[in-house]
Design a protein that fits this description.
The chain is mostly beta strands. Helices cover 12% and strands 36% of the residues. Strands 3-2-1-6-4-5 form a 6-stranded antiparallel sheet, covered by helices on one side. The longest helix has 12 residues.
Length: 98
């Protein structure tokens, strides 16, 4: 789902999912521009497996020691919310289903 939208600045379709305070944001992986945003609350019922990391910046890969939580989104949402409450950007990375 995150690669269906293109950046209005560069036209790239590679996006990253970010949590910032109470917002869920898709941003361009190249320039960091926000493409679309919604409320973090809108995502809470999801059972998608993901990992949440402290965001290293657009296009950069998070290091393992910055892991906040891993598992079904609805189960790790409180940990994500707590980590993002002070303004820290949290990167969500979808886990492949096996």
């Amino acid at each position: 789902m995150t690669e269906m939208l293109a950046c209005p600045s560069g036209g790239l379709d590679k996006t990253e999912s970010i949590i910032h305070r109470g917002s869920y944001i898709l941003r361009c992986a190249a320039c960091g521009e926000t493409i679309v945003a919604t409320s973090f609350m809108a995502m809470l019922d999801s059972d998608h497996q993901c990992s949440a990391f402290i965001d290293p910046g657009p296009g950069k890969h998070p290091s393992p020691e910055t892991l906040v939580a891993r598992g079904p989104f609805r189960q790790i949402a409180k940990a994500i919310s707590a980590a993002a409450s002070d303004g820290t950007l949290i990167r969500l990375i979808s886990e492949a289903k096996v």
